[in-house]
Write a structure and sequence with these properties.
Elements lengths: L1 E8 L5 H10 L4 E5 L5 H6 L1 H18 L15 H25 L3 E4 L2 E4 L3 E4 L2 E10 L3 E3 L12 E2 L1 H4 L8 E5 L3 H13 L2 E5 L11 H13 L3 E3 L3 E6 L5 E7 L2 E7 L1 E4 L3 E3 L6 H4 L3 E2 L2 E2 L12 E3 L10 H15 L14 E3 L4 E6 L2 H6 L4 E7 L4 H6 L5 E7 L5 E8 L7 H8 L4 H5 L10 H10 L7
Parallel strand pairs: 1-2, 1-6, 2-3, 6-19, 8-15, 9-10, 9-15, 10-11
Antiparallel strand pairs: 4-5, 5-6, 7-16, 12-13, 13-14, 17-18, 20-21, 21-24, 22-23, 23-24
Helix pairs in contact: 1-9, 3-4, 3-6
Amino acid sequence: MSKYDIIVLGSGPGGYVTAIRASQLGFKTAIVEKESLGGVCLNWGCIPTKALLKSAQVFEYLKHAGDYGLSVKDFDKDFDAVVKRSRGVADGMSKGIEFLMKKNKIDVISGYGKLKPGKKIDVDGTEYSANNIIIATGARSRELPNLPQDGKKVIGYREAMTLPKQPKKMIVVGSGAIGVEFAYFYNSMGTEVTIVEYLPNVVPVEDEDVSKQLERSFKKSGIKIMTSAEVTKVDTSGKGVKATVKTSKGEEVLEADIILSAVGIKTNIENIGLEDVGIVVDRDKILVNDFYQTNIPGYYAIGDVTPGQALAHVASAEGILCVEKLAGQHVEALDYGNIPGCTYCSPEIASVGLTEKQAKEKGIDIKVGKFPFSASGKASAGGNKDGFVKVIFDAKYGEWLGCHMIGAGVTDMIAEAVLGRKLETTGHEVLKTVHPHPTMSEAVMEAVADAYDEVIHL
């Protein structure tokens, strides 16, 4: 039986990052993967979707070439080629993980891993043991009872990335990050898209001002949006699909070629041996302490299978923290209140910290500033004036409570707010930090200035 210091079960952005950091710290490390290195994120999630979205963005630019003083007379899309490019990007990233495993001398064990008592893992009949086992098996598309996925007419995100034919009409159920990203992609490609959202606002976890702006931008692009609506019945017996949607005004039947179910995720914790080992689970989440130890010594869990935010960068951070603690380093528990969230539709969305509503519900006296990209020179020059930056500060102490952005490139800007909050910066310190001109990032400084009644360009 092969013996390791650490075995990681699952090779997504939580698992493979954990394995690399463990190896760097001197642990003899192995990683178990039943499919492709990189997990869902690299192969079927974060990376290939961004490739699809880039194709959509380029196509949008071509359609609006005249806005930039350019004449493009002959252009079209090749849906198959767009999908093929996306798969090529994903394959390249997965091969990159293979290289990193070899570089860091990590043994890759291919097969289905199942936990065993005594700090062991069975992989397709072969047992491996370790001093510590870290579970990083991730999650998959969640299915609703009234919206079962058949993989053809009712699909999840995985099928949405590799459809053999572009649908003429699509219904997207759910308007979280997955739903609105695919809605933007298919709408840009020419599909008639309708979003059905159960809650009153699209992207419901975001600040309400962000939700309203996205709805305006999407409607301007031709996407139909139904909020406070629920799909109660689906009929797939005909050529396409019919969805019965319940709204405050009654029922409406929508017809489409395909329904994309984007109603969240379900953790991959079934049939991995949790019950055999005695690891405690609450609903579909593995319970862990601040350093990802389960109730059974020697067994740890990170990423989507634990109660924290189901985000790739959270899984990576948790894995690094977990193995650094195992190495005896002094580490602090992760601050889940300072995790950035990003959505890559167009306009992009990025946020961190409290929304205005959450701050008010906590009874905090706040200062709120907002700067629209319509007043930004860089945004005007780039032809991307939709959106804004919104900041929220504690009025008494100047603490940066939250930052919410919607617009072009904001997912690359949010790190300023995350770092500022980590370093406990105040609004006045942001104001005295010189931002380069002309950039989109100036909108952060201007929004802070607005909060303190010092805004220049409004």
